[in-house]
């Protein structure tokens, strides 16, 4: 394995046709025009420049774009359609090097710049917000990535360092075209790898001294609860911790099983595999291999280390021989027992024996490449570690660190996850529920698990405390039910998530994107940092604050782009977009809005149980009518070639099933399926019309049945088992696909304002007599504007006013709608009973 560990795709030498270079004396420069919007700038004193791959820049050979060079004795200008660079020929300075993009001018200052934020190395200890490193997106017309101090990779794939004093950076001149900037970021840094399907399910992790029997019983308890898990993380107590003799140091690092807890490690791992769970162990590698370790003699032999004095074999990421022994003697021995991947928990900073070499980078890079030897077990390379900087997206999955269990921490996490995409980092795994400190709160835990459902990875986690754990059944009944519902939904989302996984890798579209990625010219898109796109069509607005004690709902202020939306989880409400809305949800629900013309496939295979997931045998299509819709379901090939380099898998080899809705004629077409072959000959298909409860259905498939649930706001069409030949494209291009006719030009149900307002009021915990004036306002025949003013003047709780306004203003088609006359109350710092004069100070007119 050692030789292939150092081989990875790269093409770091730029196209010579795109290079402008020169200089004399002790000042030399080189500019590489990678695209007409992306330029690399370099300066050196000795005339040498860097053509090796850096941790960020792996591919620099682009087709040369169109550009002009204007050069005189004292100045150099490089001009494309999108930027104008001016340089004085001297060492880079703010006076001597500038790039004009649109109406903005960047002047060199040796720093990275991207004011829309990127991500951070860790959330360890975070109570709430932390400072973010810059991304490559900005409100200005440019962003800058300084690469002068990053680690390099030599021609042989081993780590290398830069010559000191040289300057190396990149200007992204995209002027608000955020997606174009990210696409070119991935072109130069490498794409996000495809993840195996199982990582998209539910993970279990806890810092706790489990015994083997306790851990297995816990996995079985999840199965009895009907909560599916795919991934099993065993934290650091798998190895000897407390009983390490003091002369060897602490037990923070360890590679010898704790036989008191795990007397039969191979048997324990085998039992987890029998439950079809993927397994990782925690590793804090900083202390190396000490003499008490089971594998100390074997590693010492590989390194020629003298064991007579029991001196430790020190961790040294800059020693290639040590790293080979670390992987091919130490780690491989544990992998042969059944460990399938590793949680690399490096917390010891960025320094090593060689300046500029960050141990985290070395661990992430070589762990990922080495994990290819386990692809027959895990399908694709994987590692689980912390963020090391620009380029770290190539080594998913990220572990964000030990957050405190606070509402402030929850409120920051959606923003933190979304802005990570601004530096291409799309696969964060957070400690869902928080790790340590803070408070025990049923509501906080539920809201965090709901966020986890709509996060890149859902990994339940908590610290070593008898009071703190994430088993849903350890919470109160309502919270237990809500957590279970979110975990089941996450599992059902896997067909959608796997398709988004392919989209992220091959189309440069991370799963989670800030709102401004799709609406760069809308100022409102920059003012809702906790709201984000989840895939191309879903808007998620997590609730990150406690429920109102009056309405018994949590709330969030969201911005809806133009269009019409329905909440997939709460389809009784339809919203007109192009405005802000205050969304209120009981504990069991999180706002997930889909615009008209949305398709989302769910895995509804009965009794999922525990285990790494296979392609589903039953799929339910969530369909939001009102506009044409298309979704291409992408799945791994049924007969994967696991000997092939997974990073080189052609997109054409994946199985694909197009699903198309024609709004005008009401026809839904499923298939034909491409590249779908194998033993499974049938698949059950269902269609759920979300937010539509009245239609006649005709289908080609005999035996279909229709159920309508007006209370749930849906119509479900069960098609029965569909034979694969009905879906599969024939070799001659004929056949394939099947259609069902659902009705011409179907529309979302119009909101019943009185019914929904009654639900809000009925649920409120407040004086009975105080409800009547609110109900009278809603049901009165007075002019709309008059009634809104009356509602705002009532001395009732501000959150109740907003909850009523949400229902009243949601759907402009509804009789009596106040759309266009909305008044919202800012509830921060307000109390029930404050009068209209005080409330007017806090109005937000939408």
TrEMBL record:
Keyword annotations: Glycosidase, Hydrolase
InterPro entries per record: GH, Glyco_hydro_31_C, Glyco_hydro_31_TIM, Glyco_hydro_b
Keyword Hydrolase applies: yes
GO biological processes: carbohydrate metabolic process; N-glycan processing
Domain Glycoside hydrolase family 31 TIM barrel: 193-500
EC number, as in UniProt: 3.2.1.20
UniProt catalytic activity: Hydrolysis of terminal, non-reducing (1->4)-linked alpha-D-glucose residues with release of alpha-D-glucose
Keyword Hydrolase: yes
Domain Glycosyl hydrolase family 31 C-terminal positions: 509-600
One GO MF term: alpha-1,4-glucosidase activity
Family: Belongs to the glycosyl hydrolase 31 family.
Protein name: alpha-glucosidase
């Amino acid at each position: 394995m050692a030789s292939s560990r150092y081989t990875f795709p790269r093409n770091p030498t730029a196209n010579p046709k795109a290079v402008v270079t020169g200089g004399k004396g002790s000042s030399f420069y080189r500019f590489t025009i990678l695209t007409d919007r992306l330029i690399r700038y370099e300066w050196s004193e000795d005339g040498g420049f860097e053509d090796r791959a850096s941790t960020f820049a792996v591919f620099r050979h682009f087709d040369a774009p169109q550009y002009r060079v204007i050069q005189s004795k004292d100045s150099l200008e490089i001009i494309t359609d999108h930027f104008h660079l001016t340089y004085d020929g001297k060492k880079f300075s703010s006076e001597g090097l500038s790039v004009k993009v649109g109406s903005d001018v960047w002047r060199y200052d040796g720093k990275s710049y991207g004011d829309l934020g990127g991500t951070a190395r860790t959330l360890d200890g975070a109570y709430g917000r932390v400072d973010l490193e810059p991304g490559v997106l900005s409100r200005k017309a440019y962003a800058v990535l300084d690469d002068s101090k990053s680690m390099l990779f030599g021609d042989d794939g081993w780590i290398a360092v830069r010559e000191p004093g040289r300057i190396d950076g990149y200007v992204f001149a995209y002027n608000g075209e955020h997606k174009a900037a990210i696409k070119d970021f991935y072109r130069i840094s490498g794409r996000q790898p495809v993840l195996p399907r199982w990582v998209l399910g539910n993970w279990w992790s806890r810092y706790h001294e489990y015994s083997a029997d306790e851990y297995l019983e816990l996995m079985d308890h999840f199965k009895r609860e009907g909560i599916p898990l795919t991934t099993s993380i065993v934290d650091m107590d798998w190895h000897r911790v407390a009983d390490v003799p003091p002369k060897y140091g602490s037990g923070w690092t360890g590679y010898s099983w704790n036989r008191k807890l795990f007397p039969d490690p191979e048997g324990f791992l085998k039992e987890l595999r029998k439950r079809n769970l993927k397994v990782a162990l925690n590793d804090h590698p900083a202390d190396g291999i000490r003499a008490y370790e089971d594998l100390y003699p074997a590693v010492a032999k590989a390194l020629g280390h003298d064991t007579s004095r029991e001196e430790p074999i020190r961790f040294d990421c800059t020693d290639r021989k040590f790293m080979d022994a670390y992987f091919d003697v130490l780690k491989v021995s544990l992998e042969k027992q059944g460990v399938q991947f590793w949680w690399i928990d490096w917390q010891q900073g960025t320094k090593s024996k060689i300046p500029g070499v960050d141990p985290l980078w070395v661990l992430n890079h070589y762990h990922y490449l080495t994990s290819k030897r386990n692809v027959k077990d895990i399908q694709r390379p994987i590692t689980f570690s912390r963020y090391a900087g620009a380029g770290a997206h190539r080594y998913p999955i990220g572990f964000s660190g030990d957050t405190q269990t606070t509402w402030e921490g929850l409120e920051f996490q959606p923003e933190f996850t979304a802005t990570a995409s601004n530096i291409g980092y799309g696969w964060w795994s957070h400690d869902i529920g928080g790790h340590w400190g803070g408070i025990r709160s049923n509501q906080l835990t539920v809201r965090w698990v709901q966020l986890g459902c709509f996060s890149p990875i859902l990994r339940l986690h908590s610290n070593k405390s008898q009071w703190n754990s994430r088993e849903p059944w350890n919470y109160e009944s309502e919270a237990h039910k809500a957590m279970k519902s979110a975990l089941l939904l996450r599992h059902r989302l896997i067909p959608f998530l796997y398709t988004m996984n392919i989209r992220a890798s091959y189309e440069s579209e991370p799963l989670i994107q800030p709102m401004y990625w799709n609406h760069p010219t809308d100022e409102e898109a920059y003012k809702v940092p906790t709201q984000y796109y989840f895939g191309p069509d879903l808007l998620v607005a997590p609730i990150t604050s406690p429920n109102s004690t009056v309405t018994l709902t949590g709330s969030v202020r969201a911005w809806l782009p133009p269009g019409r939306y329905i909440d997939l989880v709460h389809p009784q409400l339809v919203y007109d977009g192009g405005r802000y809305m205050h969304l209120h949800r009981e504990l069991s629900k999180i706002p997930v809005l889909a615009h008209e013309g949305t398709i989302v496939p769910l895995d509804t295979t009965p009794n999922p149980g525990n285990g790494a997931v296979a392609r589903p045998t039953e799929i339910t299509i969530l369909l939001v009518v009102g506009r044409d819709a298309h979704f291409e379901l992408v799945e791994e090939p049924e007969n994967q070639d696991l000997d092939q380099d997974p990073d080189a898998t052609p997109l054409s080899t994946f199985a694909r099933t197009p699903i198309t809705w024609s709004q005008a004629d009401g026809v839904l077409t499923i298939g034909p399926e491409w590249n779908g072959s194998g033993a499974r000959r049938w698949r059950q298909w269902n269609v759920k019309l979300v937010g539509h409860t009245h239609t006649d259905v005709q289908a080609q498939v005999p035996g279909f049945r229709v159920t309508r649930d007006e209370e749930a706001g849906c119509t479900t069409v069960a098609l029965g088992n569909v034979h694969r030949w009905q879906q599969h494209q024939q070799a001659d291009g004929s056949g394939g696909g099947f259609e069902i006719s659902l009705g011409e030009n179907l529309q979302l149900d119009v909101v019943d304002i009185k019914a929904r307002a009654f639900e809000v009021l009925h649920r409120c915990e407040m004086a009975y007599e105080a409800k009547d004036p609110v109900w009278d306002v809603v049901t009165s025949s007075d002019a709309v504007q008059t009634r809104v003013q009356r509602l705002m003047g009532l001395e009732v709780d501000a959150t109740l006013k907003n909850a009523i306004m949400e229902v009243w203003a949601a759907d402009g088609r509804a009789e009596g709608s106040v759309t266009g006359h909305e008044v919202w109350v800012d509830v921060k710092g307000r109390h029930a009973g404050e009068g209209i004069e005080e409330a007017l100070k806090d109005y937000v007119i939408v």
